[in-house]
Automatic annotation (TrEMBL), chain A:
Part of a binding-protein-dependent transport system for a sugar. It comes from Streptomyces jumonjinensis. It is found in: Cell envelope. One of its GO terms (cellular component) is cell envelope. PROSITE patterns: PROKAR_LIPOPROTEIN (PS51257). It holds the Pfam family SBP_bac_8. PANTHER family: ARABINOSE-BINDING PROTEIN-RELATED, BINDING PROTEIN COMPONENT OF ABC SUGAR TRANSPORTER-RELATED. Keywords: Signal, Transport. Belongs to the bacterial solute-binding protein 1 family. This is Probable sugar-binding periplasmic protein. The keyword Heme does not apply. Residues 1-24 form the signal peptide. InterPro entries: Bact_solute-bd_prot1 (IPR050490), SBP (IPR006059).
Automatic annotation (TrEMBL), chain B:
This is Sugar ABC transporter permease. Residues 75-301 form the ABC transmembrane type-1 domain. PANTHER family: ABC TRANSPORTER PERMEASE PROTEIN, ABC TRANSPORTER PERMEASE PROTEIN YESP-RELATED. Belongs to the binding-protein-dependent transport system permease family. GO terms for biological process: transmembrane transport. It is found in: Cell membrane. GO terms for cellular component: plasma membrane. The keyword Transmembrane applies. The chain crosses the membrane at residues 21-44, 79-101, 113-133, 164-185, 206-228, 280-301. InterPro entries: ABC_transporter_permease, MetI-like, MetI-like_sf.
TrEMBL record, chain C:
Signal peptide: none annotated. Residues 92-284 form the ABC transmembrane type-1 domain. The keyword Hydrolase does not apply. Belongs to the binding-protein-dependent transport system permease family. It is a multi-pass membrane protein. It comes from Streptomyces jumonjinensis. It is found in: Cell membrane. This is Carbohydrate ABC transporter permease. PROSITE patterns: ABC_TM1. GO terms for biological process: transmembrane transport. Its main location: membrane. The lineage of its organism: Bacteria, Bacillati, Actinomycetota, Actinomycetes, Kitasatosporales. It comes from the Bacteria. The chain crosses the membrane at residues 29-55, 96-118, 130-149, 161-183, 204-227, 263-284.
Length: 445, 313, 299
């Protein structure tokens, strides 16, 4: 007995020591793309879609790929959030994915800078693809970080304005507003109060009004998030101050924060049939291109209008632009089948027919220049608005950063406190937030 | 008995002890001592899970205490929860415990009904409460409006999210009820009878007989309540995720502690720093702060004199 | 009512119809009414949430978005819809595996430790007990970073429940503590008698102590089972990346994520996660209540 116990103790000590050492020197990021793309193999693909129609569209997309590449089978795992992706890529191991698609462009900086995804530049070169000829610049901006193209766009999202044409007619408005000063007049005109609430609200400006976040408003003011040294620019670039004070004015004009917030709480879920735009609770909505299909599915009774979001009065020449974002796709650096994985990524992100078919299935904006022009796109005429926004030269996106988009939350926090009146000195709030963003990013570099 | 046999007997008894303790000794080393030491080590490194850890001195520590935007709000929330939630839970648990000792008809049914919510799995219970308290169509606000009140928006209002969590905690007060019930039944009957003879009122009997008798249990409930608050994780996290309508699938960023960091707790920021930002160093520092706090209160439980858990002989 | 009065000896004695007796009886009745009204009020507070959850789980999807409290149509099919959700049965199986295997391992590994701490005399006994309590009070998040790296990177067990089950083979602090509290209540005379009969420590433990400790073991097993059943953080850390390893608690949250608006389905799933726990409780109520009491008792 005694010997066994002593051995156990020794083994215990050894295990502890080994694991301490071992955990101190893991984390290899070297790429080993030497697998044969023509060999029989099975890839694991993770994506974030969860709605049945979207899952089906993804499955069909994969089936098309499998038909074209008989040697590669794809195992699809859906409903994967960025947290899970990030964690699994670190763990590596048997259940980890080879190809990953993520909804949120905010994690790209982290995926690239940590080496979670491999740099696709060598693969693009090998396949003779010049990304600048395939994708519009904003899309390349949000899929790379400091020159490391660790992901490619898989369809994109363009943000614009939805409006209720019936409500417009009733209020005697003939055209969607083009400038923000027109916009608040229109919003006011469309607003019908009822007691201490609303019968119809022109527009829900609150930052928690679903897609009305700072990062979606701000592009209309052409902001620069980071300066040349990579420092936060939000306190120096007047675009942010102008945007946040405009939103606050809008909040006050439409009834004030407490009243709007109370009304906001009566809204149905953003992804459900009872979305306030569908039910007529709001007459205008800032949203991505997918809203059109969702509204149709929900069976809305009124005619839906779409337009680009307004711009500041002095930038009317830029009208037509909007915020761009999208789903991204990359190859896990832990994958042992990177060449085969590249075949899948290449097919899904750059093959015109694949992109067009997937766009038709999932009702997002196609992401390649060729696909945007394709006659095979089966979309509603009002969808064209978003295809135009996607191609507008001044449309922009928010840059990737190592903090995985935490800088958006820090900025949004300023907005939340300002709209509710808890913060009164906007400039000092922005300066503090800029400092916080710089500290957070320095911490992760 | 020769000294030799005595010594060998002693040695045998020591071996026997070690043998019986061995599962736990291994567990202690592997799942307590080693990870704690390792956490201390990580707290002095920069490590993201990919690139090898790099020693960075006190960087993580200064970051957490002076720059980490979630740390102080989480600590403030913890203080609020200790002061309000723990206190109310103890008072309510004692009240329900007293009530159950007074109930003479259907005691078993009442006891079961009072106890059941404690068993509800936290994720399920939290989902249920976010639904019950949802501002638009939730039954609670519907009923409050029937009686003409203008109800708060609970989990979506930073001023009301912690009270809503407190309601959830009060609902699951069954554990305290049972402990208090047992303690109350242990109070010697003679003391009540003596007090009654002296003409003591119900309040006086409670104040001068009941309370002194059960005060160790009250203290036990408070201290374990504080320790449980240090571990408070599932309920605030699930409530925030569900109430924000952002379960992480839509591509929007989840705001930890939604709304406005009002439901952040220390365990949540360990997760946020370690498994969302993948800054293991920062996570390790917060973990050690959490460890220190939990151990201070654990030590209170085990004090040699007046300790609530008798540890040794 | 008669039964109530029976329990009040003072009242029973005063059967003579004197004014004093009548006042006493009226006072007792008022007291009874007051206490039981309070009891019913409290019962409503504890029960209504369950009632609303069940009612909502039977509503149509359209109706959950209204202010109705009671279903207009009873949609029992919500439950079969939940059962048909891909994964739901897997979550069940995984939860049973985690809770079942984990409970057995915990009980088996904790009994000898608790026995030694309760009945042996050895140097470092007090220290060991303090360490057990410290482990019991340790928030799991404190050691999660190195533990995760250990299981995921050294042993490649991320995406499984093994990192949660294996440690239970090495004694669980709470189980050890609870069992030790219980074993302390077993008089030493029984143990001494067994030794006089020539039993070794192991046999004494198996033949004499264990049969007497059954209620304590039952309580520990129940607690451990509920702990695993309810655990959210563990599966979130270790199993989240692999849907095939999700448990009910973790899956339930993601179920809500995938069914944003379907409160009826979410509530039906909630009922199905709560129900087993409540059923187990009804079967094992006594052991459970004893266990809770034990945690608060001085050793």
């Amino acid at each position: 007995m005694s010997i066994r116990t002593r051995k156990t103790a020794a083994a215990l000590a050894a295990t502890a020591a080994i694991s301490l050492f071992a955990s101190a020197c893991t984390g290899s990021t070297e790429t080993e793309a030497n697998d044969d793309p023509n060999a029989e193999t099975t890839l694991t693909l993770w994506h974030g879609w969860s709605a049945p129609s979207e899952v089906k569209a993804m499955k069909e997309n994969v089936e098309r790929f499998e038909a074209a590449h008989k040697n590669i089978k794809v195992k699809i795992v859906g409903n994967m959030t960025d947290d899970k992706i990030n964690q699994a890529l670190r763990a590596g191991g048997s259940s980890a994915p080879d190809v990953v698609s993520s909804f949120s462009t905010t994690s790209v900086g982290k995926f690239c800078s940590t080496g979670a995804f491999v740099d696709l530049n060598p693969f693009l070169k090998k396949s003779d693809i010049d990304p600048a000829k395939v994708f519009h610049k904003p899309l390349l901006d949000y899929t790379q970080f400091e020159g490391n193209q660790c992901s490619l766009p898989l369809l994109s999202d363009a943000y614009g304005l939805y409006y209720n044409k019936d409500a417009f007619k009733e209020a005697g408005i003939t055209e969607p507003p083009k400038t923000w000063s027109e916009f608040d007049k229109v919003a006011k005109k469309l607003t019908k109060t009822k007691g201490d609430s609303y019968e119809q609200l022109g527009f829900m400006p609150n930052y928690h009004g679903y897609e009305t976040t700072i990062s979606h408003y701000a592009p209309q003011w052409s902001p620069t998030y980071f300066d040349a040294d990579g420092k936060s620019n939000i306190a120096k670039d007047p675009a942010f101050r102008d945007m946040i004070s405009y939103q606050k004015k809008l909040v006050d004009k439409l009834g004030g924060f407490p009243k709007l917030k109370k009304y906001r709480n009566t809204f149905g879920d953003e992804w459900g049939a009872k979305h306030p735009f569908h039910t007529g609770q709001v007459a205008m909505q800032m949203d991505g291109e997918w809203r059109l299909g969702m509204a149709k599915d929900a069976g809305v009774k009124f005619e839906i209008g779409t337009a680009p979001l307004p711009v500041p009065d002095d930038q009317i020449a830029d009208y037509g632009k909007g915020y761009l974002s999208g789903t991204i796709m990359g190859i896990a650096s832990t994958s042992k089948k990177q060449n085969a994985a590249w075949e899948l990524v290449k097919y899904m992100t750059t093959d015109t027919d694949a992109v067009v078919a997937f766009s038709n299935g999932i009702r997002n904006v196609p992401s390649t220049i060729e696909a945007l022009k394709s006659p095979d796109l089966k979309h509603d005429p009002s969808f064209q608005t978003f295809i135009d926004i996607a191609q507008h030269p001044k449309s922009n996106s928010s840059p990737a950063n190592v903090d995985g988009g935490a800088y958006h939350l820090t900025l949004q926090d300023v907005g939340l406190r300002y709209e509710s009146g808890k913060l009164t000195d906007l400039q000092s709030g922005l300066e503090k937030a800029a400092q916080q963003i710089d500290t957070d990013i320095a911490k992760l570099k | 008995m020769t000294t030799h046999t005595l010594r060998s007997k002693r040695r045998r008894s020591a071996l026997r002890t070690v043998a019986f303790l061995s599962p736990w000794l291994i567990g202690f080393g592997l799942f307590f001592a080693y990870p704690l030491i390792s956490t201390v080590y990580f707290s002095f490194t920069r490590y993201d899970g990919f690139r090898p850890p790099v020693f960075n001195g006190l960087d993580n520590w200064t970051y957490v205490f002076s720059d980490y935007p979630m740390f102080w709000p989480a600590l403030r929330n913890t203080l609020w929860l200790v002061l309000v939630m723990v206190t109310l839970r103890v008072i309510f648990g004692l009240g329900i415990g007293l009530l159950i000792t007074k109930i003479k008809t259907g005691t078993g049914i009442f006891r079961t009904l009072f106890y059941l919510p404690y068993l509800a799995p936290p994720v399920a219970a939290t989902l249920a409460f976010v639904f019950l308290l949802n501002p638009g169509t939730g039954p609670v606000n519907t009923m409050l409006e029937w009686v003409g009140l203008s109800p708060p928006t609970w989990f979506t209002d930073p001023d009301w999210s912690k009270p809503a969590l407190t309601l959830l905690a009060l609902w699951g007060v069954g554990d305290l009820m049972v402990i208090f019930m047992a303690a109350l039944l242990d109070v010697p009957k003679e003391q009540y009878e003596a007090a009654e003879l002296d003409g003591a009122s119900a309040w006086q009997r409670f104040r001068f007989v009941t309370l002194p008798n059960i005060s160790p249990i009250v203290l036990f409930a408070v201290v374990t309540g504080v320790i449980a608050t240090m571990q408070y994780y599932t309920q605030p996290l699930v409530a925030a995720k569900v109430a924000s309508g952002n379960m992480g699938g839509s591509g929007q960023l989840f705001e930890p502690g939604y709304p406005e960091k009002s439901t952040l707790t220390l365990p949540q920021i360990v997760y946020n720093a370690g498994f969302q930002r993948f800054d293991y160093g920062t996570a390790a520092v917060v973990a050690l702060v959490l460890f220190a706090l939990a151990m201070v209160f654990t030590a209170l439980l085990m004090r040699r004199r007046g300790g609530l858990i008798q540890v040794g002989d | 009512m008669a039964q109530v009065l029976d329990r009040e000896p003072a009242v029973k004695k005063a059967t003579a119809d004197t004014p004093a007796a009548r006042t006493a009886r009226r006072k007792a009745l008022l007291h009874w009414i007051a206490v039981h009204s309070l009891g019913i009020a409290a019962a409503l507070f504890f029960v209504l949430p369950f009632v609303f959850v069940v009612l909502t789980s039977l509503m149509s999807n359209q109706q959950t978005l209204t202010r109705d409290l009671i279903p207009t149509t009873w949609e029992w099919s919500n439950y079969s819809k939940v059962l048909d959700t891909p994964g739901f049965l897997t979550w069940w199986r995984n939860t049973l595996l985690y809770a079942g295997v984990g409970t057995v391992l915990t009980v088996v590994s904790s009994i000898p430790v608790a026995y030694a701490l309760a009945k042996f005399r050895f140097r470092g006994q007090r220290l060991s007990m303090m360490l057990v309590i410290s482990m019991m009070m340790l928030p799991p998040q404190v050691i999660i970073v190195p533990m995760y790296l250990f299981w995921a990177k050294q042993l490649d067990l991320a995406g499984t429940l093994w990192p949660l089950i294996i440690p239970m083979a090495f004694g669980d602090a709470f189980a050890i503590f609870l069992l030790r509290q219980f074993l302390l209540t077993i008089p030493n005379e029984y143990i001494d008698a067994a030794k006089v009969d020539g039993c070794g420590e192991l046999r004494t433990l198996l033949k004499v102590v264990l049969p007497m400790a059954k209620p304590g073991i039952a309580a520990v097993a129940l607690f451990q089972f509920f702990y695993a059943w309810n655990d959210y953080f563990g599966p979130q850390i270790y199993a989240s990346e692999n849907p095939a390893a999700w448990t009910l608690s973790y899956g339930l949250e993601s179920f809500k994520g995938a069914h944003h608006t379907d409160w009826n389905l979410t509530m039906a799933a909630t009922v199905m996660v709560m129900a087993p726990v409540i059923l187990v409780f009804f079967f094992a109520q006594k052991a459970f209540v004893e266990g809770v009491t034990l945690t608060g008792v001085k050793g």
